[in-house]
Each structure stands twice: as C-alpha cells, then as structure tokens.
C-alpha cells in the first residue's frame, strides 16, 4: 500500500480553474442498451484526429447524475481518452424501468452489459478505466470484481471508504436535508454558485440503493478479493462520511489481495464532492496520472 498525502444537459456549474491544456469538449447525450435496460449517459470523445487511448467509465454517486463529471471531461479528452459518464441503473433513462433501482451487484452486471454493447460499436482504445465517486465507487468496485467480457485497466474511486462514521448512517439519502455537511464539508471549498447550480445534478435515490448502505462493509469484504486490477482510493481532507484513521484505511487496502497495486491517497483542500470543488482539477489530473500508470502496466 502506498499512502500519499433531469435530462442530461450541461449544468451551469462554475468550473474550477483549468489546469493544463484541456480544451472545450462537446458533451453529447448518449443512450446505452444494457441488456434491455436503457442507460442515459454523456459521451465525450477526444479531439478529431486524436487516437483514442482508453475509455473512462465515470460513475456518479448517490442522488446525483452523470453531469457530476463535467469538469473532468475536458482534461481526459485532451489527453486522448474518451469519457462515458453514465446515469447508474435507477437514475435517468432507467428510472421508469427500475423504479426501485438495483442492488450494487446488479448494477455491476448492468454496467458490464453496457460496456460490452459500447465496445461492440465504438473504439475503446486499450480498454475501460473505471472512475467512481461515493456510491458510484461502490458500483465501480462491484464492476471490477464481477466477470465481464471487456478489458478493464484500473479503478479510481473518491469518497468510497470501508466503515461509515456513525453520524453518516443517520442520513441514508443525500437528499435528506441533514446531510449537507457530510456531502460538502466547508462551503468555501467550492466555487461561488456551486450549490445553486448543483441542484440540476440531483435525482431521487432509488430505495434499494439506500437500503444497502448499512451492509457495505460486508459487501466490500466479499468482493475485494476478486478485484484484479490496480486500485486507487482517494479521500478528501474534509471527508465526513467515513472512518479515515490509518488502521481502517490500511485494512481496506489489505482486503484487495488480488489487485497488483493499491494506492490510498488524500486530496487536500477538498470535501466529499471533490469534482465540484476548487481542487477538482488537481484531483482529476491525479486520476489521469494513475490511468497513465495503468496503461503502462497493461502493455505486453
């Protein structure tokens, strides 16, 4: 373990200051057929004439939508990666089909079906890289552990821990008014206008997803040995949902026994919703640096 310090429209979020040469990228609404389940998504491609190096499956957290990843997309596409940001099963286009949602394990199977279909019709480069936030990180971990017919390069999660802080279990839905401190941390960590604009990202949490919250530690213990790709776990400096003491994080990393590399990282100056804050660009560039390492490791 290495320890280091609504319809899919682009919301009017004020993005963090750009870092590096990321150019504006069009966010195209997209829909996947995941074994008969429609998944709405955002598909962003690298600039014309750029070889596609990989495809990043970006998986949003509880009570949000795919547009959570809007600030990440330009950095990734500028470096030659396609980004497929999906509305998880039970959100967006699948909400009517799955009014109760799906379990995390079922979401993983649905996401595998979506990736298989996407790979059939698109160049995916060297393979898929999984990027998850919060409950989306849980779904991404399940996806990494489940068998599938597509190549997976690595997994990067933020805000996805092992044991919940006791105060967090009182707020099973991020739409419950009491969860503001847990979700955001100090408000000065975010650009002006973020909280009003972020309302366009919110969606009801499917009941089955909320019901699973208390079972996560046992679920993680069961799936962790089946994750066979490099993993990076990132936690914001002001993360309040999880126990972040060193022994707990070491125990979490130690469960990933089949992963060739596990990194536990910390993002200074950030709250739970890292990708909406002032340090979003710093975090996103760290994600992409880890992806570069995964690509090198995947070469014959």
State the helix count: 9
**String of helices and strands:** EEEEHEHEHEHHHHEHEH
Overall shape: it is globular
- Radius of gyration (Å): 17 Å
Estimated share of beta-strand residues: 15-25%
Give unreliable regions as ranges: 1-24, 172-176
CA distance, first residue to last residue: 24 Å
Question: Average pLDDT value?
Answer: 88
The helix fraction, in percent, is 25-40%
Summarize the main sheet: 9 strands, mixed
Overview of this protein structure:
The chain is built from 9 helices and 9 strands. With 300 residues, the protein is an alpha/beta fold. A hairpin with a 2-residue loop joins strand 2 (28-34) and strand 3. Helix 2 (104-121) packs across helix 3. The protein starts with a strand and ends with a helix.
Q: What is the secondary structure topology, with strand pairs?
A:
Elements: E1 2-4, E2 28-34, E3 37-44, E4 54-59, H1 73-78, E5 81-86, H2 104-121, E6 128-133, H3 135-145, E7 152-158, H4 180-184, H5 194-197, H6 207-211, H7 216-223, E8 231-236, H8 246-255, E9 262-267, H9 280-298
Parallel strand pairs: 1-9, 4-5, 4-6, 6-7, 7-8, 8-9
Antiparallel strand pairs: 2-3, 3-5
List its salient traits.
single chain; 300 residues; nine-stranded mixed β-sheet; 9 helices; 29% helix; disordered N terminus
Q: Summarize this, please?
A:
This protein has 300 residues and is an alpha/beta fold. It has 9 helices and 9 strands.
């Amino acid at each position: 373990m290495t320890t280091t310090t609504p319809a899919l429209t682009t919301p009017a979020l004020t993005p963090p200051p750009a870092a590096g040469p990321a150019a504006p990228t069009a966010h195209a609404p997209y829909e996947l057929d995941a074994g008969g389940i429609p998944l709405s998504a955002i598909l962003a491609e690298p600039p014309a004439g750029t070889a596609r190096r990989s495809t990043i499956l970006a998986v949003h957290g509880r009570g949000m939508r795919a547009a959570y990843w809007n600030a990440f997309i330009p950095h990734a596409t500028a470096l030659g990666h396609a980004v497929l940001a999906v509305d998880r099963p039970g959100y967006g286009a699948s909400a009517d089909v799955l009014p109760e949602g799906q379990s995390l394990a079922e979401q993983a199977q649905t996401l595998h079906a979506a990736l298989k279909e996407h790979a059939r019709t698109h160049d995916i480069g060297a393979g898929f890289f999984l990027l998850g936030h919060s409950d989306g990180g849980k779904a991404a971990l399940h996806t990494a552990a489940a068998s599938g017919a597509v190549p997976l390069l690595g997994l990067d999660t933020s805000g996805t821990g092992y044991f919940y802080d006791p105060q967090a279990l009182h707020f099973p839905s991020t739409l419950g008014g009491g969860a503001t401190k847990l979700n955001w941390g100090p408000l000065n960590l975010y650009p002006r206008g973020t909280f009003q604009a972020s309302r366009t990202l919110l969606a009801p949490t499917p009941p089955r997803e909320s019901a699973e919250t208390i079972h996560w530690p046992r679920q993680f213990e069961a799936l962790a040995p089946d994750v066979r790709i490099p993993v990076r776990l990132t936690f914001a400096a002001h993360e309040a949902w999880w126990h972040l003491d060193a022994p707990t994080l070491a125990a979490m990393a130690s469960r990933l026994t089949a992963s060739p590399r596990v990194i536990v990282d910390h993002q200074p100056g950030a709250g739970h919703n890292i990708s909406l804050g002032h340090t979003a660009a710093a975090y996103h560039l760290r994600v992409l640096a880890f992806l570069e390492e995964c690509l090198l490791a995947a070469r014959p």
